[in-house]
Amino acid sequence: METKYKPIMEFSKLTRIFHWLRAIAIFALITTGFYLGYPYLAPNNFSGEPTGFLYALMRSWHLIFGFMLIAVTIFRIYLLLTKECAVERRSFLDLINPIIWFGVIRAYLLFGGHPRLKGSYNPLQFITYTAVLLLILAISLTGLVLYAHVYHEGLGGLIMPLVRPVEVLCGGLASVRAIHHILTWAFLIFIPIHIYMVVWNATRYPGGGVDTILNGIKFEKE
After folding, report:
1. Which of 43, 162, 181, 204 has the CA that lies 20 to 30 A from 146?
2. Kind and range of the H or E run holding 94
3. Angstrom distances, CA of residue 165 to CA of 75, 101, 170, 173
4. DSSP per residue over 97-160, as a string?
């Protein structure tokens, strides 16, 4: 008998847009951030005139994508509280269900099929994505501390009293910079694992995977 699948809307249009905006911002921030930490390229300047400020250009793009990541994250958190993301919130019910935990671990060890979920994420995904959200918040806070110490007026001056406790908690500006850099490496560890697991799920379980974050639809057996 032929197996029939039914389409289910798992991720809304805004969820998918925010996902790819965050992905673009993170990749841009990693690229420009490593350049700011170690400027391995310099423009040719045979005249001795102060022109070709590649470092300043990289810093400008770093700031642009940094504030883009902060803005998208704020709206993404708000979206999680709306009706549009009700399916994602139901993932918490799977998180506290030991039967789902057993089924997911068994599936990842290749001993069985993936259990049917109430939400969008299985328990391991839920914990991982929550950790990534906290990681984004931490790297954004340390980035704002560094920003406020360079731009003393305007927004920098406005947020300085708010981010100063973060600087003190981290042990000073040098420690803030070190933590900011270390958190970048956390993203570099997460990204290849995330891509591998998404592709692995898409090939092993044809109901979703890569397609889901593109068109928002997953397929379940009727």
Report:
1. 43
2. helix 91-95
3. 25, 39, 9, 11
4. -HHHHHHHHHHHTTSSPPPP-SSSS-HHHHHHHHHHHHHHHHHHHHHHHHHHTT--STHHHHHH
CA distance 29 to 66: 7
Beta bridge partners of 6: 220
What is the architecture, at CATH level 2, of domain 12-39+55-221?
Answer: Up-down Bundle (1.20)
Which residue do the tokens 């099929």 mark? Answer: 113
Amino acid letter, 125: Q
Output the six-digit token pair for 137. Answer: 């918040």
Average pLDDT per 10 consecutive residues for the chain, totaling 222 residues: 72 89 96 90 67 84 96 93 86 91 89 83 91 95 94 90 92 94 94 89 73 78 69
Round to whole Å and give the CA distance between 144 and 66: 9
3-class secondary-structure state, position 8: strand
At 45 the three-state DSSP class reads: coil
Model confidence pLDDT, tens digit, residues 141-152: 999 999 999 998
Q: How much is the pTM?
A: 0.87
Helix (H) or strand (E) holding 6, with range, is strand 5-9
> Domain-by-domain residue ranges, the chain?
12-39+55-221
Q: CA geometry: angle at 24 spanning 22 and 29, to 5°?
A: 90
